[in-house]
Automatic annotation (TrEMBL):
One of its GO terms (biological process) is methylation. One of its GO terms (molecular function) is methyltransferase activity. This is 5-methyltetrahydrofolate--homocysteine methyltransferase. Coiled coil: none annotated. It comes from Catenovulum sediminis. Keywords: Methyltransferase, Signal, Transferase. Residues 1-20 form the signal peptide. InterPro entries: Haem_d1_sf, WD40/YVTN_repeat-like_dom_sf.
């Protein structure tokens, strides 16, 4: 693995070129991060905070460009060219950066959305600047799964059997990206695999691929064990391997207490309990009928998880609720419409709802209900998010969704109408704004609001 950076001369030249290419319709917020002045016309509770809906990164179809929109006025801020087209768009652990993963080209790029918050001890301090492509890149063999948790991003590189490149993991924060940290905490394997890593404080819970003769996986490229890697002097070392197997491991999530990994015969639950590591297996329920949970969603404020079982490549999806505390798995009836296939899933920022966006242009909203002392996810309502004929969907495109982390809003990109719909999950009120590009994927960027933020504001005034 290498970290690639432009040399200083190239950066200086590119900066001059970019500043000379301004468009009269481009909204430039601020060129440099500056302290928000209490008398700058903004409404700040303590002089250091910025009120903003955030920004929206939109990857442009059949292009290497990512468009950044200001969600305060729905105007285009910048079109930013990355190195290759077709990269997977997501967000960094602190929501400041858009991540663009070029798996086939062995690199991850970062776009600074231009909004972030720093903890200065006595107060929280917000910053705002124009979006820009970072010269900082991660380079490694086949970066695939990027997992975020508690301010850290774990990048799992699958490796490449044809070239003899092995799997590896790097862990970084938004501060590492901003500082262009040269040497990141990392570890490597002795073999390639299609794996996953869950960062958790000074530990990483990650997949392990055993020798094919020992592996219980039907597809040997998939691992069948989980290990705990502990950070020592900027390097991770394997501290513990769970005995319980997880054949054909794929998909993982965690909350504040446990990690859950998808296996062909159920899910594996792991936990650090004091100085001990424990694990338990929750078997598949009969209704899965041979399908396996290959995607798992969790939230730090929830005790349960939601798993998705479907055929490889999509199609009909079965949802299950995973309850580690009770060692149970239960069906979730999300009441899909005929021929509806999910294209995106997400929890709302406050974890009050689970969202399912389908190919027919509907957003199904699940809510947790109390029954016999237990909470269970159940169908709440369905919202029609497109007035277009879905038969007109451009080839190899679909609706895409992202959730704001500073309110009750979800944003949905419609490639047919070429617009973004904003939905208020509290009132179901909607609004739209037009795009001047064909959207491939979208992701929200900005300053996330957490319960701890509000507590800190009261104390000092994530």
């Amino acid at each position: 693995m290498k970290l690639y950076r432009l040399n200083l001369l190239a950066v200086a030249i590119s900066t001059l070129l970019l500043s000379a290419c301004g468009d009269s319709e481009t909204t430039i917020v601020e060129k440099d991060p500056i302290q928000t002045d209490p008398d700058d016309g903004h409404d700040h509770s303590d002089g250091y905070l910025i009120e903003s809906a955030g920004r929206l990164a939109v990857s442009v179809a059949d292009s290497n460009e990512v468009a950044i929109y200001d969600l305060d006025n729905n105007q285009l801020l910048q079109n930013i060219a990355v190195s290759f087209e077709g990269g997977a768009l997501s967000y960094s652990a602190g929501f400041r950066y858009a991540t663009v993963t070029h798996r086939g080209q062995d690199q991850v790029e970062f776009i600074d959305g231009g909004l972030w918050r720093e903890d200065h001890g006595e107060h929280l301090h917000d910053y705002k600047q124009a979006p820009a492509l970072s010269s900082y890149k991660l380079m490694g063999s086949r970066p695939t799964h990027l997992v975020k948790h508690d301010g850290k991003l774990a990048v799992f590189y699958d490796g490449n059997s044809e070239t003899g490149e092995v799997s590896s993991v790097e862990v970084l924060s938004d501060t590492d990206i901003a500082n262009q940290t040269q040497s990141l905490p990392a570890f490597s394997y002795s073999v390639n695999m299609h794996g996953v890593a869950e960062p958790n404080g000074e530990y990483v819970f990650a997949s392990i691929r055993r020798d094919d003769a020992l592996s219980t996986s039907a597809n040997k490229i998939l691992p069948d064990q989980v290990g705990v890697f502990h950070l020592h002097d900027d390097e991770y070392e394997l501290d513990h391997t769970f005995v319980e197997s997880c054949p054909d491991l794929h998909g993982a999530a965690q909350n504040e207490e446990v990690q859950v990994f998808g296996c062909s015969d159920g899910v594996l639950v792991t936990q650090k309990d004091g100085s001990e590591f424990t694990s338990a297996k929750i078997a598949n329920i009969d209704s899965l009928d041979g399908l396996r949970v290959g995607t798992i969603y969790g939230h730090e404020h929830l005790h349960s998880f939601i798993g998705v079982a479907s055929q490889h490549g999509g199609g009909e999806a079965l949802l299950v609720q995973i309850n580690p505390e009770e060692n149970e798995m239960d069906d979730i009836d999300w009441q899909p419409l005929t021929d509806a296939h999910p294209v995106s899933y997400a929890f709302s920022a406050d974890a009050e709802h689970f969202l399912i966006l389908d190919n027919l242009g509907y957003l199904t909203i699940l809510s947790a209900e109390e029954h016999d002392g237990h909470k269970h996810w159940a169908f709440d309502r369905r919202v029609d998010i497109s007035q277009q004929d879905v038969a007109d969907m451009p080839d190899n495109h679909s609706f895409s969704m992202t959730v704001a982390q500073n309110g009750h809003f979800v944003y949905i990109a419609d490639p047919i109408a070429r617009h973004v719909l904003k939905l208020d999950l509290e009132s179901d009120a909607t609004s739209e704004f037009e795009l001047n590009v064909l959207p491939k994927a979208i992701t929200w960027l900005g300053i996330a609001e957490h319960e701890d933020d509000h507590a800190d504001e009261h104390d000092h005034d994530h």
